[in-house]
Amino acid sequence: MNMLNLPKKVYFKDGSMNVALRELSEVYHLKRAFLVSDPGLYRSGIVMSIDCWLRDRGIRTAEFFSIGSTPSFADVRSALPKLLEFEPDVIVGIGGGAAMSAAKAMWALYEEPSLDLAEAVEHPDRIRTGAKAKLLLVATSFSSGAQNSPFAVLNDDAGNTCVMNSSQLLLEAVGLVLNNLRAAESGCPTAREKLHNAAALAGAAYGNTLDTIDSEAPLYPTDTEKPANGERTGQLARGLGLEGVQSLWNACEALR
After folding, report:
1. What is the pTM of this model?
2. Cys-Cys link to 62, which of 86, 206, 209, 228 (CB 3.0-4.6 A)?
3. CA pair distance 55, 72, nearest whole angstrom
């Protein structure tokens, strides 16, 4: 039997963050939020606005921003004493893939403090979540779709990049990227919203089709990996109003 693995709730709409945050207190009656982000977003004030919003609604907060561009096992472990002391009932990842990877891994370690992160990478079935806290991911960039994927990209204790996978729709996402990337780069709010949606769709898609992800892999398939006349790729191209597979690859190449 095929299963579709998605977060319990996904919000697609301008202004939906306030709806999601309001539900923390009004629907789930949560009291303590542990905010995970990176130093750049903290300095920008983005995290502070969420922090104040939560506090104004009676949710106590604690903050953790000591993560690198690729969070390490050491980063995740260093958050554990604060997690155990604060005892949050929700962990909130704010940012891009790094913050969300860190939040996911911290969630797993908080639920089971004795968890060996290296073993969890090799045996994801040992990960148990949801008994102590919920996880909320607030995307501030339209990159990997990490907010909807089960993957956490981390550096292990030897400095090697690995992927933790905590669980066992794509066509529309391709069109959104092809049609809106340039306008989004120019700052168009509508186009940026569409790319946020595309990233969320892509994250959900590869979370349900791949066992893991390769953070070192190129963003585009190589020439030897591109199907010349794949039936599904051809259908995708025609659905986007393109003549065929080669036209699709040309459109993708033009976005480099």
Report:
1. 0.67
2. 86
3. 29
Question: From start to end of 106-204, where are the E strands?
Answer: 134-139, 151-155, 161-165
DSSP state of 23: H
Average pLDDT, the chain: 78
CA 148 → CA 4, 54, 89, 132, 221, distances in Å?
A: 12, 22, 20, 21, 22
Give the per-residue pLDDT at 113: 96
If you search the block for the tokens 């292990």, which residue do you land on?
156
Q: From the CB of residue 188, how many other CB atoms can be counted at a distance below 10 Å?
A: 14
67 vs 181: which has the higher pLDDT: 67
Cα radius of gyration (the chain): 19
CA nearest neighbour of 71 among 44, 36, 41, 45: 36
The two structure tokens encoding residue 220: 């585009």
